[in-house]
Amino acid sequence: MPGFYIYQCTLKEFEAGSFAVGPQEKAEQQSQEGRYFFYQYVQKENVTQASKLQIVRNMQNAAKRAGGVVMADWKGDNWATTTLKLTQDGKEKWIQVAARDGSYQLTVVEKQAMAQDVTMDAGAMGSSLKEAGKVALYGIYFDFGRRW
After folding, report:
1. pLDDT of 82-96, one tens digit each?
2. Which pick of 18, 32, 67, 108 has the fewest CB atoms within 10 Å?
3. With the CA atoms of 99, 29, 63 and 73 taken in that order, what torsion angle do they form, in degrees rounded to the nearest 10?
């Protein structure tokens, strides 16, 4: 939206996002997994303040024009949230806009399967134990000397 700047941005190759769905009275959340984007926008100083409703309606209208659907449209005294679902380039995207007067957060999950980075073969592990007395686990790293 015009008059806003990105205050925070996060990208994760695979993460779950929780999205509001259905009527507000039932208050359901649905988890979607895939490529995850999070943006927090803050309104610039010395510009006319956009209301939470204006932010949400702009996002809903843009999604509808792109062929998307509104999955949720929730409002409170000082907040508004909408969940949008659309398909672009064959990829399903879930978008949640959480707005307050003067700021909003945008969570986007582009649905996709997780790339499997670690593999294990029980037979090879057993053979390695018998032959060498140890097993090498590549791709699994341990932090020694650290407390959680």
Report:
1. 999 999 989 999 999
2. 67
3. -60
